[in-house]
Amino acid sequence: DTAVSQTPKYLVTQMGNDKSIKCEQNLGHDTMYWYKQDSKKFLKIMFSYNNKELIINETVPNRFSPKSPDKAHLNLHINSLELGDSAVYFCASSPKSDRRKETYEQYFGPGTRLTVT
Amino acid sequence: LAKTTQPISMDSYEGQEVNITCSHNNIATNDYITWYQQFPSQGPRFIIQGYKTKVTNEVASLFIPADRKSSTLSLPRVSLSDTAVYYCLVGDIAYSGGGADGLTFGKGTHLIIQP
């Protein structure tokens, strides 16, 4: 059973197109995230949703729009793709944080490699 | 402002114990320290988390001195399969006010294990 899954795994498209990446988790987690890992392997948080509500938006261009239809899904839609959007995009999820518990693990998906030509 | 500093790369040999140190001089009272491992073409995987002193699980140990300004991930008896990038994260795990600090991955330490 795949805990966090992403589709597609690879995505090649041309500049100016609009594309979506889907993410699903079957762990029952309340919180989901999108990260971008660029060619230098620097992993940056983009968005975080807690129970379908946006709670973190880290200075990402508004061409990127996350959508959470339910707490098990967090999709990423990208408009007017640019060359600089080429990267690996990771989805992740984690249990609801609780100060009484120390564990705060993020479970990552396999990544989607986006190439914009 | 980077919250953590790690060596860019480290080399070791199979069967050795490897210690990777992370500096976090500006750690806040509510911050926890979390380590992740990432293999090529995969997402990061949680290794261990701690607040103070020592934490041990089946994979690694985490040593945190009293001032909490640094932490050391210890991997006992490494094998070739431990070759990966290791990330140290520092932040508040409580989501209501934690923000993105606990979700900020630095450049990590590329650990290379040789036979």
How would you describe the overall organization of this protein?
The complex is a heterodimer of chains A (117) and B (115). With 117 residues, chain A is mostly beta strands. Chain A has strands at 4-7, 10-13, 19-25, 31-37, 43-50, 53-57, 64-70, 73-78, 87-94, 107-108, 112-116. In chain A, strands 2, 4, 5, 6, 9, 10 and 11 form a seven-stranded mixed sheet that branches. In chain A, strands 1-3-8-7 form a four-stranded antiparallel sheet, with no helix packed on it. The radius of gyration of chain A is 14 Å and the shape is globular. The mean pLDDT of chain A is 88. Chain B has 115 residues and is mainly β. In chain B, 3% of the residues lie in helices and 47% in strands. In chain B, the strands form two sheets. A five-stranded mixed sheet of chain B has the order 1-9-8-3-4. The mean pLDDT of chain B is 89. At the A-B interface, strand 4, strand 5 and strand 10 of A face strand 3, strand 4 and helix 1 of B.
What is the first-to-last residue Cα distance of chain A?
A: 34 Å
Tell me what portion of residues of chain A adopts beta-strand conformation.
Answer: over 45%
| Largest interface chains and counts | A-B, 31 and 28 residues
The helix-strand sequence of chain B is EEEEEEEEHE
The quaternary state of the protein chains shown equals heterodimer
Query: What is the strand tally of chain A?
Result: 11
The largest beta-sheet of chain B arranges its strands as 1-9-8-3-4
Q: Which stretches of chain B are poorly predicted, pLDDT < 50 over at least 5 residues?
A: none
- Count the strands of chain B? 9
Overall geometry of chain A: globular
Strand content of chain B: over 45%
Task: Tell me, rounded to a whole number, the average pLDDT of chain B.
Answer: 89
Class per helix and strand makeup of chain B: mainly beta
Q: Average pLDDT value of chain A?
A: 88
Determine the N-to-C terminus distance of chain B. Answer: 38 Å
Q: What's the story with the biggest beta sheet of chain A? A: 7 strands, mixed
Compute the number of helices of chain A: 0
Number of helices of chain B: 1
Structural class of chain A: mainly beta
List the secondary-structure elements of chain A in sequence, H or E.
EEEEEEEEEEE
Helicity level of chain B: under 10%
